[in-house]
Amino acid sequence: MCATRPGRFPAAATRRARATRYARAHRRTADGGRGRDDLGGAMHDVLDPDSERGRVYRCLVARPRALAADLAHSAGLDEDTVLAVLRDLAEEGIAVAVDTAGSTDDRHHVWEALPPGRVVETVLQRDALRQATARRAGAELERLYRFARRDTGSYGALDVVEDPAEVLAASRRLQLAARHQVRVIDVPPYSGSPAHYADQEVLQRRRMAAGVVYRAIYQGCAFEDPVAGPNMARMVEAGEQARTLDEPPLKLAIGDDDLAIVTLPADDRPGVVSLLVRPSSLLHALTAVFETLWRLAVPASVAGVDLRIDDRDRRILTLMASGATDDAIARRLGLGRRTVVRRVSVLLAHLGATTRFQAGVQAARKGWL
């Protein structure tokens, strides 16, 4: 049941302005701008109970069919905003007007929701497509690496470096030159010495104190490494924004938009080869790869404890992914509210998720659903 939110609806002018702002925001997202949802427009955002789309969809799911006015009352939104959301959901195939009564005015249309399970499945399919795109980008970088290794010279915006000491020096220069942010993808093997990680920790703390934002993507098992793991955990506690991904395709560091270091294994001998990339279309592509992987990754959890779930947890996760509240889950499963709140908190923490929908996606990846 959707709870009615207190308060009176805004005046007509305010309602029209809010609906106009909503429509403009959606157009910006559809045109390729940075909207609220990075994983698939309304199809993703509709499962977030805190968004306007999520509130309208949730209230529509709670009843077989409804008019816009009924949904506005239940969701605590004005009718113009609800109509704008419904048109948006209809374009995505999430809601449909099943009875128009011969009227062209959608205020008189009767609306019905697409089942939540189909919405979740579509989002997971789009997520898989994003990962496939990232893997193709990694394969393209492999081909670039093989081409670059034909010689150890410089190719315009690209330098090939094989000396580990030179790579470490370049990494230090990258961090010292950055004024806004340092973006890192760190994958095994972690071959640095304890002294190296200690020096890196001192440098990173100093740069973060100067206002430089560090964003890092780690492989899921990274925090279990006996040498690198403790350093990573301390950096997260110090303010580094860290996320994890099952299998990041490459090792990468980017300083602002000025320099990138790509590290790849050598094919025919031990060791690695690094590419130093200066401002170019390649650097722009590497930045896009990082941002795509960042959206796919989940906030890092350093607990490192495997969680066993039972059928009750699976039902809780399924209801969480559909946008159900703690009270609704408790009623549906016949549990106490405190029990549900406690279990939801444990599941969110273990999955490294910040939203219920994100927890559902991660649980599906783990094969729990």
At the first level of CATH, the class of the largest domain is Alpha Beta
CATH architecture of the largest domain: 2-Layer Sandwich
How are the strands of the biggest sheet laid out side by side? Answer: 4-5-11-10-9-6-7-8-12
The gross shape turns out to be elongated
Q: Any descriptors?
A:
3 domains, three-stranded antiparallel beta sheet, disordered N terminus, nine-stranded mixed beta sheet, Endonuclease, Chain A, alpha+beta, Arc Repressor Mutant, subunit A, 51% helix, 12 strands, 369 residues
Structure description:
It is a single chain. With 369 residues, this protein is of the alpha+beta class. The protein folds into 3 domains: 103 residues, Arc Repressor Mutant, subunit A; 177 residues, 2-Layer Sandwich (Endonuclease, Chain A), CATH 3.30.870; 55 residues, Orthogonal Bundle (Arc Repressor Mutant, subunit A). Helix content is 51%, strand content 15%. A 9-stranded mixed sheet has the order 4-5-11-10-9-6-7-8-12, sandwiched between helices. A 3-stranded antiparallel sheet has the order 1-3-2. Strand 10 and strand 11 form a beta hairpin. The N terminus is likely disordered.
